[in-house]
Design brief:
Strand content: 15-25%
Number of domains: 2
CATH architecture of the largest domain: 3-Layer(aba) Sandwich
Bound molecules: 5'-O-[(L-methionyl)-sulphamoyl]adenosine
CATH superfamily of the largest domain: HUPs
Number of helices: 19
Largest sheet: 7 strands, parallel
CATH topology of the largest domain: Rossmann fold
Amino acid sequence: MPKTFYITTPIYYVNDKPHIGHAYTTIACDVLARFKRLDGFQVKFLSGTDEHGQKVAKAARDQGIEPIDLCDRNSKNFRDLAGVIGASNDDFIRTTEPRHIAACQALWKDLEKSGHIYLAKYAGWYAVRDEAFYDEGELTKGPSGDKLAPSGAPVEWVEEESYFFKLSAFQEPLLKFYDANPDFIGPKSRFNEVYSFVKGGLRDLSISRTTFSWGVAVPGNEKHVMYVWIDALTNYIAALGYPDKTKDYAAYWPHAMHVVGKDIIRFHCVYWPAFLMAANLAPPKRVFAHGWWTVEGQKMSKSLGNAIDPNALIEKYGLDQIRYFLMREIPFGNDGDFSESAISGRINGELANEFGNLAQRGLGFIAKTLGSVLPAPGAYTPEDNEILKACAELIVPARVAMDAQGFDKALDAIWAVVRAANQYVDKQAPWALKKTDPARMNTVLYVMAEIVRHLAIIMQPFVPTSANKMLDQLGVAADARSFAHLGRNHALKGGTTLPAPSPVFPRYVPPGESKPGKST
Ligand code: MSP
């Protein structure tokens, strides 16, 4: 039985247009999914759209269309985004699909059966924008004295018959669960935040609404639709075939990881495990909450008109370049401010000058000097052995970093080797050996090719297209690119004719500036 890994993005609200914040979450999940696949795991990677609730119903009404028409149109934008950003998700779930509705109703019935749902009257504050209920004490005052949710969203007073979930009964079980699973929430600061929130006491949660109908009907009482978060969270098990608990559910759910933004941590780390425990199901293995990207210090939003369109950015800089930037620029979990100068700095300083140049120097020289025939190496010097060992062992710190979702730390470790490799090339100076010691030159060129093979294999999750281009240029077979192929057992064969090399990471030149001319 292969090791399995289940990774999910949040499902995106269909009332918004995809922006770089959404792309960020999906790219992070994609990098993890690719890393695990290359590391021998059988991976299921899920994304999708969150289509019910008052917010969507209102957006459709404002546009004079049926909610489902709005959902069809906007869900497609998110599905397309996955393609644009190179996401390798193997499923895309929509909460309006029958498989999802069936799973929600099955979960509801399980909660009811286990005695965790009761009917009463709800009176309290609701923020449609957040699709969340708030206590009076959590509210703040807006500039004109109006009440606002902690997120800044306007709230309205809601008074209606509602089903409640006995969340209050889960304070102790949740604290016990957190104590027993200190890795349930990352980063650690978020774990502490959730822990103290639960420690402060939990109130029962209103989980149905009667004042609108765009949602999953409550089984047995069609006057009610389910609260959009109980509906939304269920997508993660619906896509595994729940209520069937054999097959995908059995294979993947014990290894589930949700990547979410910091704004939706309470739903994923408090409500969701409580619902699951109440239904006698296991909570997911881990939830990681990343930070938010702002633009010039401001929140990205439709109303401010400052949302960054991933399509435009990718067109301008390149897909792998943007993927690399997003994973490199800020530690996952921290907030970051978006700046285009930081992007070009990373592209030129790191991808073009350091990684790309390393590959181009080796491959270009083999093409020019040896007619593209990869030489066979002679005996290795201690320096050769040292850099080859660093390459072969790089997977160890990379794995540790990736298991903690430390993308920047994994890239730090990789870049330490990229820099050491460039120093190795400068010191060995194969171009100077051409006349003095061609046999040694051959060995150095071979070591350079092996270095690039290792780095390209390990960089595939971050920059899949470019890394695979490098591997193509080294003549590495498509089925010899996994982490199992790192190390000397799978080394390149000397004597192979390599395809013509071409630079993989071009420098970014802003429009209007000319490319530097070739030195003569
Ligand atoms: N529909 C809910 C999630 C339900 S999951 C069962 C939702 N959708 S959302 O479309 O509003 O947000 C989806 C994700 O995008 C969230 O994780 C959110 O944190 C993330 N981001 C939205 N804007 C963002 C930034 N500006 N920066 C980084 N991530 C951001 O919430």
